[in-house]
């Protein structure tokens, strides 16, 4: 068994690593958010992928570390939930948007998807970073556990549209990939949307219940 001093050092090292990871991730997604907004305003949604597509691809790939964090017990996030969330996005930024027709890269759904992702992640990672430093401010907690009411439906519907719109082109590229994406869309996204939404509702109730003022 490790000595108390060694345990404290390990806990501090883990906390410092997670603080750095969450701070960096928040900054990366903030860049996605700003670039997406500015490009959409100045040039329109059809130019968003060219401006931020590759950057978003690698920013989302960094998030695969969250699977490792959950797997080794570094965080208490359920492994299954983490895998579903990360894998679904990696599926979008790699096989779908890498192989899909230009029309899906220039679709307004791509822009709404990035807006939903980036706003969510800036809030989420900032919340995690502040939580490692102490009690997060009330406004940040409110954003963390309430914005999903709007952002989750926008995000997942945009993702589903991107997959659906790419199926025809994918069949011409690889029949196997097209079949896999149909399974993902109809077999995972539809039931998975309900599971993830109810999971977030449960998390919200648990956290917000603890924020209610005590009655005399």
Describe it.
This protein has 216 residues and is an all-alpha fold. It has one domain. It contains nine helices and no strands. Helix 1 runs antiparallel to helix 2. The longest helix has 39 residues. The N and C termini lie far apart (45 Å). The relative contact order is 0.10. The mean pLDDT is 92. GO terms for molecular function: very-long-chain (3R)-3-hydroxyacyl-CoA dehydratase activity.
What is the strand content?
under 5%
- The topology string of helices and strands comes to HHHHHHHHH
How many helices does DSSP assign?
9
Please bin the fraction of helical residues: over 70%
Number of strands: 0
Number of domains: 1
What tags apply to this protein structure?
9 helices; globular; mainly alpha; 0% strand; single chain; 216 residues
